[in-house]
Amino acid sequence: MATPAAVPGFQLQMRRTFAARRERVFDAWITREQLDAWFCHAKPNATGQITEFDPRPGGRYAIVVEEAEGKVFRLRGEYREIDRPRKLTFTWFWETQPEHGETTITLEFFDLGEQTEMILTQEHFPNVKSRDRHGDGWTRCFDSLTRFLER
Known about the structure:
Elements: E1 3-7, E2 11-18, H1 22-30, H2 32-38, E3 46-53, E4 60-67, E5 72-83, E6 87-94, E7 103-111, E8 116-123, H3 128-149
Antiparallel strand pairs: 1-2, 2-8, 3-4, 4-5, 5-6, 6-7, 7-8
Helix pairs in contact: 1-2
């Protein structure tokens, strides 16, 4: 289970250990087919589509998620740092929910042999409510990633 922690300055930090080697967990974030398989289907009754994907420093990504009721969410960002398999940093902006502002996400991957500890740090939230809502979403995403890696 992911363990969210409130960090000063409206930051979110979550840790999760996955039963997969570090390279496999890292690649699940930067390989389009893999990201599509777990991230775009993390929320029940929702489907997503990656509409832009260029995983390199300065490259951009965009994802559209549609709930069964028809509500559409658009997400975009830019990759800042890719240090395979140790670290991934990118921006995160909900076009359809601009009140959350643009945040920065850093993922760190720690080699535990046949397991990987991943630490997600998301910074620059405008308020506690926004931070906490993202923590709920990341918990669903981590659960989905766990199921994907178990295949």
